[in-house]
């Protein structure tokens, strides 16, 4: 997804961004009081389900048709996800930058790929690199690419947006450039969001910190794979570093690869005890059992690919829990919950190790 091209001089004052915004400090020592994320604050009122890239990320090499049902990051995918009881859709946004990578195309180059808006016109073929091989981006229901502004205008207004601020892992960005891109994105959001709930997130530590500096209306989360990969930037290499960054930068929470919290379940309590919200992403979130475990652990929400299946499973769990509450005494239920969580965590830990 691309943003609408806007010159920096056209960007309005975002929470009184100073003229020397490029020199903003990336760290702070105080944290604001948490508020409800359903009204663009920090804590979630219920277990939250977020559709990954809309109805789910496309896994083109998969034999599972569900992973190729709708073109990811498209209006079609977003609105099909909205047919299910989810709270947000997650999608990637990037500004206009320089090199000819997937994340670096100009707006005209971006729209030249895939299905075209004009009837009878064919676009350039979209491909994806999978395990070193180039494969065609073939899905059952295709759609043309879209801008962030179009998403606001055409997607069900009841669905929140989890906007991932996308940057290249292999590029070291100048702070001025990050600020420019974030201001362009924020201009589109401020002009179109209205009452739609918004969350910002990014794997790029400085982008997350700067977005929190540039505005205070919407929550900002730091994305981390929790140590599953190692980067030159140590802030990206563990949940401990992620928590430190979030606290020092006054961020609202962390989005972690789910395996990281299963390897170290106590980190959930540590993060929540620091007044941070915790979401997870990853392939394990496509199994209802692992999602249920996270509910028991106190995780605030999950980003999932199998939107229909996971929302249905969560609904069934709520129904069973309501029935069980009528049959059990509170102490018995708490004992059972503790046994269930311990057993499931041990099982998942063994699965991850093997």
UniProtKB/TrEMBL annotation:
<dbReference type="InterPro" id="IPR030395">
    <property type="entry name" value="GP_PDE_dom"/>
</dbReference>
<dbReference type="GO" id="GO:0006071">
    <property type="term" value="P:glycerol metabolic process"/>
</dbReference>
<dbReference type="InterPro" id="IPR017946">
    <property type="entry name" value="PLC-like_Pdiesterase_TIM-brl"/>
</dbReference>
<keyword id="KW-0319">Glycerol metabolism</keyword>
<dbReference type="GO" id="GO:0046475">
    <property type="term" value="P:glycerophospholipid catabolic process"/>
</dbReference>
<feature type="domain" description="GP-PDE">
    <location>
        <begin position="47"/>
        <end position="314"/>
    </location>
</feature>
<dbReference type="InterPro" id="IPR051578">
    <property type="entry name" value="GDPD"/>
</dbReference>
<keyword id="KW-0378">Hydrolase</keyword>
<protein>
    <recommendedName>
        <fullName>glycerophosphodiester phosphodiesterase</fullName>
        <ecNumber>3.1.4.46</ecNumber>
    </recommendedName>
</protein>
<dbReference type="GO" id="GO:0008889">
    <property type="term" value="F:glycerophosphodiester phosphodiesterase activity"/>
</dbReference>
<dbReference type="Pfam" id="PF03009">
    <property type="entry name" value="GDPD"/>
</dbReference>
